[in-house]
């Protein structure tokens, strides 16, 4: 039976709006003139970072204000062993860094500096140069050229804005949960919602926990439900993570029951790349709710109850043929 509509004076929750592309500015209306990019005396924060570079065996080879926001940057040669990728970016592609090392070796030139920030304790992190770093290591390089940014927060901003970031849900989720865990070490007292720019979507935090536990978890079947119902918390992230962990556990319980329903359909000889999506759609109460939806915990409980009662005998191949959605994930 369709669920009754929930009456409420408030509007139904919507998926987070996509970030708008900035309007084109008038020509030459922002930033600073070329002569103003020169730094005669480093600001205190940049001076501290320059001192850190030299203490760790590096050398400052240039310094300037970047031309848009007038933020000080340092161009430095760093000992290659002092640089590591940030611990919250996606996994290294073995094929990519080997191919990149071949290109660098063939030209004999390293022309694309990585970006670096100071790491906690000692050394440096690069939020965007993992493959270039590994390519140089493969070639036996002693040093790497880096644009050192005094603002440590830039590491999260770069990952959030990285246009080369994969759009695969699993990779996005794993990257987000790694950023989250990095934030837990860096600034655990701030509210989760303060980091919404870097984390993009609260559903990705929960799914990241799921993918960490099971690499082929069927996150695509549940993403739209989580995205509709989840919001970033006003609690500090050290507390908010517990909510994501609880939801991830409930998702695993639900997915186990959905898998049992899928197996029943297969036993009847029903074939489709959308079996899991079909079952999830059948047990999802949100398909009937147009007004404000129930809380996520209530929705997941309803889905578990319906999954337990799922009757595979009432499904035929024509029903599956009319279904669509996210193909079942295999691993």
What does this structure look like?
This protein is 43% helix and 10% strand. A hairpin with a 5-residue loop joins strand 4 (114-118) and strand 5 (124-126). The protein has helices at residues 44-55, 94-107, 130-138, 154-161, 169-187, 196-199, 202-213, 223-229, 237-267, 275-283, 296-308, 317-321, and strands at residues 59-65, 72-79, 83-85, 114-118, 124-126, 143-148. The chain has a six-stranded mixed beta sheet with strand order 1-2-6-4-5-3, with helices on one face.
Regions with pLDDT < 50 over 5+ consecutive residues? Answer: 1-17
Number of strands: 6
Give the strand content.
5-15%
| Shape designation | elongated
- Element order: H for helix, E for strand: HEEEHEEHEHHHHHHHHH
User: Order of strands in the sheet with the most strands?
Assistant: 1-2-6-4-5-3
Report, as a whole number of angstroms, the end-to-end distance.
Answer: 35 Å
């Amino acid at each position: 039976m369709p669920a009754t509509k929930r009456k409420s004076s408030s509007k139904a929750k919507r998926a987070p709006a996509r970030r708008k592309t900035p309007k084109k500015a008038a020509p030459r209306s922002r930033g600073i003139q070329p002569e103003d990019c020169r730094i005669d005396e480093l600001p205190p924060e940049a001076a501290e970072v320059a001192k850190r570079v030299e203490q760790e065996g590096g050398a400052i080879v240039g310094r300037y204000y970047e031309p848009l926001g007038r933020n000080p940057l340092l161009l430095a040669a760093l000992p290659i062993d002092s640089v590591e990728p940030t611990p919250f970016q996606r996994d290294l592609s073995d094929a990519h860094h080997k191919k990149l090392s071949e290109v660098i070796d063939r030209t004999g030139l390293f022309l694309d500096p990585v970006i670096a920030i100071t790491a906690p304790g000692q050394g440096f992190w690069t939020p965007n140069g993992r493959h270039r770093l590994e390519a140089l290591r493969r070639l036996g390089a002693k040093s790497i050229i880096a644009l050192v940014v005094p603002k440590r927060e830039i590491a999260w901003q770069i990952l959030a804005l990285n246009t080369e970031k994969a759009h695969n849900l699993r990779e996005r989720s794993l990257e987000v949960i790694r950023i989250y865990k990095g934030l837990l070490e860096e600034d655990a007292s701030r509210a989760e919602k303060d980091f919404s720019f870097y984390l993009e979507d609260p559903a990705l935090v929960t799914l990241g926990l799921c993918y960490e536990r099971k690499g082929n978890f069927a996150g695509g079947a549940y993403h739209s439900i989580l995205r509709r119902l989840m919001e970033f918390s006003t609690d500090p992230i050290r507390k908010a993570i517990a909510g994501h962990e609880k939801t991830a556990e409930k998702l695993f319980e639900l997915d186990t029951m959905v898998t049992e329903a899928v197996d029943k359909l297969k036993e009847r000889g029903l074939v489709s790349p959308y079996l899991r999506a079909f079952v999830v759609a059948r047990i999802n109460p949100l398909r009937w709710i147009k007004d404000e939806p129930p809380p996520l915990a209530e929705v997941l409980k309803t889905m578990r109850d319906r999954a337990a009662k799922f009757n595979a005998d009432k499904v035929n191949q024509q029903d599956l043929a009319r279904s669509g959605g996210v193909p079942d994930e295999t691993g």
